[in-house]
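Good morning,

Attaching, inline, the backbone tokens for the sequence recovery test we're adding to the shared suite. The designed sequence is right after.
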């Protein structure tokens, strides 16, 4: 089953062409790692998929439903608001900077969107939220405020919060980039577990070890284009394109 079909996505910020015809199909259960230099359009691409940014050209279908279509006249046409929101709710997103609500406890952070966006009953969502927090190893932090947590714990709350909306697809934008190295492992572990449960995931990451081990497919983006894609072995170990080779050499030197 095709979960995401993005065709020829174009996005400009003023005169800057940030996405220059990006096309990507993702099947159910696939884990796709997106790598590439800073400024290549990785975050913008994820943000276009769930309508945090609107596109300037192209077509996006999520689980067969049309979020936005660009016809021959070249003007992208989005689904009507209620429909577009429904479609985007199939995707959860985890950000580099966690984006937790500082004034809410861990548990309240996790139940907030199901309560307010979906109208799920409190007694229904509470046990689910507790179960999700147990799953990410935070059962003893339910009543803590985010300021009392480490970065790795905050990111695990953010993952539980995304899961509480029962998405079919998770988008991760450099989920470990803001973490001290010793805390990345606990977040990657939670993500690996989701991959094992066949969650469909797109992960923008610099963690080549994770990409190699968990991703079914690696995509290298540069300057608003997909330059190369394939298995981790193909792209990370035997890149064909000069730009991919240069990028990987550059990371390895760090
Ligand atoms: N809201 C915005 N307004 C203007 N320019 C932006 C905006 N968001 C991103 N950009 C620019 O778009 C380009 C791609 O950014 P981004 O998608 O964040 O790249 P990446 O995630 O690969 O580092 C960069 O040049 C960035 O400065
Ligand atoms: Mg980015």
């Amino acid at each position: 089953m095709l979960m995401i079909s993005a065709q020829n996505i174009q996005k400009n910020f003023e005169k800057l062409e940030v996405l220059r015809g990006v096309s990507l199909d993702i099947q159910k259960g696939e884990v796709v790692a997106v790598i590439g230099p800073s400024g290549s359009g990785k975050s913008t691409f994820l943000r276009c998929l769930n309508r945090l940014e609107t596109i300037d050209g192209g077509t996006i279908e999520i689980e067969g439903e049309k979020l936005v279509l660009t016809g021959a006249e070249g003007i992208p046409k989005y689904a009507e608001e209620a429909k577009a929101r429904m479609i985007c709710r199939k995707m959860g997103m985890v950000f580099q900077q966690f984006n937790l609500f500082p004034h809410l406890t861990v548990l309240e952070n996790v139940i907030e969107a199901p309560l307010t966006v979906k109208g799920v009953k409190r007694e229904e969502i509470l046990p689910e939220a507790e179960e999700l927090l147990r799953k990410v190893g935070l059962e003893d932090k339910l009543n803590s405020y985010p300021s009392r947590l480490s970065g790795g714990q905050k990111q695990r709350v953010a993952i539980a919060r995304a899961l509480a909306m029962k998405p079919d697809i998770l988008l991760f934008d450099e989920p470990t980039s803001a973490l001290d190295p010793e805390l990345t492992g606990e977040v990657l572990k939670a993500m690996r577990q989701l991959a094992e449960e066949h969650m469909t995931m797109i992960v923008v990451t610099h963690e080549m070890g994770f990409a190699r081990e968990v991703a079914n497919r690696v995509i290298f983006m540069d300057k608003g284009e997909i330059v190369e894609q394939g298995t981790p072995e193909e792209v990370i170990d035997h890149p064909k394109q000069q730009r991919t080779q240069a990028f990987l050499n550059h990371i390895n030197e760090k």
